[in-house]
Amino acid sequence: MTQKIVPVIMAGGKGTRLWPLSRAAAPKQFIRFIGDKTLFQETLLRVSDPTLYEAPVILTNEEFRFLVAEQARELDIGLAAILLEPVARNTAAAVAAAATLVRDRFDEDTVMHVLGSDYEIVADDTYFECVRIAAATAAQGKLVTFGIQPTEPATGYGYIEGGKTLPTGARTVARFVEKPPLAKAEDMVATGGFYWNSGMFMFSVSGVLAEMRSYAAPVLKAAADAIAKGVRDLDFIRLDKAAFATSPNISIDYAVMEKTSNAAVVPSPFKWSDLGSWDSVWKSGSRDENGNLAAGNTTVVNTKNSLIMTHGVHLAVQGMDDIAVIASEDAVYVGRLQDSQDVGNLVKMLAAAPTTSQLTETHPTSYRPWGGYTSVLNGDRFQVKRIFVTPGKKLSLQKHHHRSEHWIVVKGTAEVTIGENVQMLRENESVYIPLGEVHRLANPGKIMLELIEVQTGSYLGEDDIIRIVDEFGRS
């Protein structure tokens, strides 16, 4: 039993509306847009007060499991559990699985705070006062959502109309409104009493499970079975695929919140953005006297009201107005800020073409549980990568059927196993791994190990890895 709130963080989304920085294998919640922390890490920090919260439960998918673990480790924040969803089934099934887990670990009176991992929120006193009101309301059996005070007649959000005021300061929910046309949004904002639907919730385990039994029984059964038949794998809990897949694909809003008579909304005037498009990133950031938001290596001249951001090449922008110029390591997007809601359609076009589909899936830099690698250069029968290995980590003991490798250490110390031989390499030292030879790379040092890897051979795909021993359960 606990008197604290159990945070449940949804971190499995694969949105690509912030392309080219956000991609299917590295979506926006795990990207550093401005500053040194990702949106997922900022979410972890908002629920890190041990006097208010228990350790968080994370829901994500197989592909992001090591990103979640590593980004939590960087902040030294412990996680209660990482639930791996085997198939995408929207937020109703995720909430049901989390509620089942929390009930089993604590009890039915426990209050859950369900959050997305991809919002930008200013967690000031106003924010935590809203959390306090929501927790008090949830403890009385209400299913609580946070309604953001509108700052404009936005058409990209759903709205909630507040009803009568409850003793806690929350309001009953009069109705939910789908994403409206502009004229209707203007009327609602002018009338008052309408709020943006933030997608954040607070409810007791017993409260949400009771409403799911009434309105979403198939979802609850699928999630409960998936938990019961789940398998622990290192720090992860793999939900049973066959059971979880039987759940209807439906959001918690449609499945429960819009049907229950027990819903409440906390009017929330804190700063919030779902960062769903480049113009929302521009609006949420700190702009200069010309209305520009620039991040990374940029030079901006005679330009106004624009977003200039780079994670790669230096961007020089001159004589422009109301544009977004976004550069990743391997792609650049240029478009008007007012059109940035349509980036998703552009990404669909790129994904449909064989020559550009990879640009929507992965970055040149890929992260692994031991560190990661950056693709530097690809050619006919050769490939150059930058490998980085976290202190104390090691790659799997492996071999390749179609390629040999040369390793040159540029930073740190490498422990290299080749066959029966183990040797230490330091900066500016190199080694050759012949085709078919069993080998392993480890970082025994205290600083990040960086090396350049040159692969040569007839086939250089990532699936030419035969893992013999792997501490991350991939062999």
UniProtKB/TrEMBL annotation:
Top-rank taxon, per record: Bacteria
PANTHER family linked to this entry: MANNOSE-1-PHOSPHATE GUANYLYLTRANSFERASE
Annotated EC: 2.7.7.13
Protein name, UniProt field: mannose-1-phosphate guanylyltransferase
A Pfam family of this chain: MannoseP_isomer
Lineage: Bacteria, Pseudomonadati, Pseudomonadota, Alphaproteobacteria, Hyphomicrobiales
CDD domains membership: cupin_PMI_typeII_C (cd02213), GDP-M1P_Guanylyltransferase (cd02509)
Ranges for domain Nucleotidyl transferase: 7-287
Residues annotated as domain Mannose-6-phosphate isomerase type II C-terminal: 358-469
Signal peptide: none
Assigned keywords, A-Z: GTP-binding, Nucleotide-binding, Nucleotidyltransferase, Transferase
